Amino acid sequence: MNKAKRAAVIAGNWKMNKTPAEAAALINEMKPLVKDADCKVVLCVPAIDIPAAVEAAKGSNIEIGAENVHFKESGAYTGEIAANMLVEAGVKYVVIGHSERRQYFGETDQTVNLRTLAAVKAGLTAIVCVGETLEQRELGYTETLLKFQTKMALTNVSASDLDKIIIAYEPVWAIGTGVTATAEQADEGNGYVREAIAEVYGKEVAETVTVQYGGSMNAKNADELVAKVNVDGGLIGGASLKAEDFSVIVKAASK
Fold it and tell me: What ranges make up the beta strands (E) of 179-252?
């Protein structure tokens, strides 16, 4: 991390877990544990949990995010949610292009870009996910793929809007598998992302963009991961569903 140049952000991605009542209970359990954080604390929750989560987080340093957003403002898109709907509900952040969205719901680099543009236009901070599969890594395409995905996601995003962008490097082979990239691999991947931003916007601008690591970061490995210069926090899956574990990660990013 380099807090002198960019924000450190720990964001929980709850995926399809927790009812509204359970969401409120978990947030209330988390609030005293993370109240002294020296990093941004975000919880990205299922759409149905958003009202309960926003209410539970009131008066605390926890901000609420969504897990997806559509690129149209309205229309015949059954099951989707527009950016202005999220804003009105009190959402501040939104995860875009998570590997599970790409794998199971047909997200592409093009739709990730469109969703990112819609989020930024509405004033949301987009947490844009990029990452390679194990096969792609073994073939030596990690750098090429991460740079391509990053540049695609940021197409038509102005330099002045990069303050509404967070990139989360999530190696697909380390999500939900229990396998975590080494701290060196995480730093290298995040470094490729930062290089891609620098190639488009310049190095000085790239140094201001928060790049998270998102691949099975947990209470045991958080200290080592966030100690790396290019790792500006994490996009946390399973560990964000346990108040104590999540607070340990927040504390690691607060050092």
Answer: 210-213, 233-236
